[in-house]
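Every protein is a chain of amino acids, and every chain bends into a shape of its own. The protein below has been through that process, and both of its lines are reproduced in full.
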Amino acid sequence: MANQTRTVNGIVLKELQLKESDKVITVLTRELGVISIYAKGAMRLKNKFHSSTGIFTYSEFVVFEGREDRMFKLNEAVVKKVFYNLTASVENISLAMYMSELVQEVVVPDEVSNDILRLFLNCLYMLCENKWSPLMTKAAFEMRLMSDVGFRPNLVGCKRCMEYDKELFLFDIEGGYLICPDCKKSYDVNCVICEASVTLALRYLALADLEKMFSFKLSGLSLIKLCQICEKYTISHTKDTYKALEFLKPILKPLIEQEIKNANKGK
């Protein structure tokens, strides 16, 4: 592949300034997964690469890989989509930053890079168009990303008795499977209670076709529980801390409090 020009489509996850006017961008691409691209002069407002290399811009890039290293160099770029509404909400832009950090942490296999790119783009769209709340988007992105990169939990039924239809399950965070109350053992200490609505949500987000996944909605206490489970599951299978997540948590707290308030009103 060295010394060849290639066209890739992807969204900018991160940008790092080099010298006065150059930068390196980290891009989630359909064709090559997550790659780094050197963009000469892209920090200048009048540079032809400036708009196409901005963070959370979806662009078509013509890149060149030299002989000496694995750093791609940008030859041409065309903007395909800019998510302008992200910056209108501190919740949305903060969540997008966390999603970006999470994608950069996991290993994106080539065979699913297109699916993960579609997941990322669709989640940004749902945020910008107010079709999903940040809480729903966060949970959906975490669970689907973990599923697509090799950590899909076993949600078919109880791992021990294979019972599928229960009003209550327990979800093992580390093991990634369901246990019914009748089969729970004393050593099952890392389990979270899942009501039927939460179990259905987990199954839908992890297993449904990507196009259908975005038709799913949840609210109230069930949404809060879903968020807790998806976050714990993600942390358990990646790393303990994310800077963007620590920044995001207090920002989402008012949204969580509002969901609790709305749930109490409905009682």
